[in-house]
TrEMBL record:
Entry-linked CDD domains: NAT_SF
UniProt entry tagged with the keyword Acyltransferase: yes
Xref: InterPro entries: Acyl_CoA_acyltransferase (IPR016181), Bact_Acetyltransf (IPR050832), GNAT_dom (IPR000182)
Name of this chain's protein: Ribosomal protein S18 acetylase RimI-like enzyme
Signal peptide stretch: none
GO CC terms of this entry: ribosome
A molecular-function term among this protein's GO annotations: acyltransferase activity, transferring groups other than amino-acyl groups
Location of the N-acetyltransferase domain: 1-151
Species: Allorhizobium borbori
Phylogenetic placement of the source organism: Bacteria, Pseudomonadati, Pseudomonadota, Alphaproteobacteria, Hyphomicrobiales
């Protein structure tokens, strides 16, 4: 899993932040301990797409503690070698069904990551605001907040 995240992050963000900063973000956000916490988190879903030989994509989303009717999509990554095969679309479609009673999905995306912004827009997300991250390893970086209303069932 970490190898997929590292490959995806470097392919997407090296040109924007530089390889050193990208590695710092990977080490902070995609450590084995962090991935294990995601797997155990209450109100969360961790999805993996594989072909039996390797992992092609993954997603992690979790209900907001203070607003359980909202789920935050924290991660949706597809290995660079697997782009344009429908993996992201399929993972996202599955993820949308994992949270009964949730009426809003929220995410943050780097505004200059035009492929991701286009993907999320094509899947019904709309930009809400652009913010500057105030703490942690991403302090000072920009994030575009996007929302998508979900049908509750």
């Amino acid at each position: 899993m970490r190898a997929l995240l590292a490959a995806s992050f470097h392919a997407t963000y090296d040109d924007l932040y530089g390889p050193k900063k990208v590695q710092e973000l990977i080490d902070a956000w995609h450590s084995t301990a962090t991935l294990e916490k995601h797997l155990e988190a209450k109100g969360a879903e961790f999805l993996v797409a594989d072909d039996g030989k390797r992992i092609g994509g993954m997603a992690y989303a979790r209900r907001k503690d203070d607003r359980p009717e909202t789920v935050v999509l924290h991660q949706l990554y597809v290995h660079p070698d697997c782009h344009r095969q429908g993996i992201g679309r399929d993972i996202f479609a599955e993820l949308e069904t994992c949270f009964p009673g949730v009426d809003l999905m929220e995410l943050e995306v780097e505004p200059r990551n035009t492929q991701a912004v286009a993907f999320y827009s094509a899947h019904g997300f709309v930009p809400v605001e652009e913010v500057e991250i105030e703490s942690g390893p991403a302090k000072g970086l920009k994030a575009l907040i996007m929302h998508k209303p979900l049908e509750t069932f």
